[in-house]
Amino acid sequence: MKTQFKNYMSLTKKEWNGMVVLLVLIALVLAAPYAYQRFHKDNTINVTEFNAAVAQLNKANPQANQLNDGGKLQSVALFKFNPNTSSVADWQKLGLTAKQAAIIKNYTTKGGRFRKADDLQKIYGLTKVDYARLAPFIVIPEGKAATNMVVELNSADSAKLTSVEGIGPGFAKRIIYYRERLGGFVYKEQLKEVFGLDELKYDEIKGQVKVDASRIRKINVNTISFDKLRLMPYLDYKQVNAIVEYRKQHGNYASIADIGNIAIIDDGILRKIEPYLVFK
């Protein structure tokens, strides 16, 4: 039995040599990836140089190909454009993505304006490569046809307000809403009380607007109801309630000094509301 097993497991010299060759080949195959990594180094791409090359190529060839939002190549034909009036479709034709186009259009719709080509670089999501490609085609007319026109805030409708450079439909709606609650503007600095209209925006538009204080709507403090007085932006709920209750207890107000007797209404509030009150 032992002899038969030995004969079965024994190898000829030829078979042994074949096995050695097979083992060597297996070892070489397993070692090949490690040897490749050791002796072959990948070239590192210089991103700055690559972007500069792309920008130069696009500048030299306006009929460029860009990837759209779906990752497919689309033909881009650059043309002269005004960033203040371009539509979402125009921006996409210029090679921007739908998201980039929407961000820019949202900016102009809310009253944002590009006064010079460099202003486009402030847009979030617009790359330096995009700007370098578009910059030679930006055309911004100097001023508006109605540059010398000054808009009166207490009589202007929404269309008139949007003619002010820096005021879009969104800001126009907010200004009118605040004007109605207030009863009109006594001075144009009150625009800074409108939601979202900060000091920078005010500085941008103040030279294009004026106020006719004779147009404000006066409040008869001796007859106005709680609900209507509650609309006055300068008074909170407790102050409105105090004015009405004081009137009930002490009779009609004769002057602003009488309202000053209410403890929770200070001099700052009095100065703000005085132009809107009448005492009949």
UniProtKB/TrEMBL annotation:
UniProt-listed InterPro entries: Endo/Exo/Phosphatase_dom_1, RuvA_2-like
Domain of life of the native organism: Bacteria
SUPFAM superfamilies (alphabetical): RuvA domain 2-like
Protein name as annotated: Helix-hairpin-helix domain-containing protein
Organism of this sequence: Mucilaginibacter aquariorum
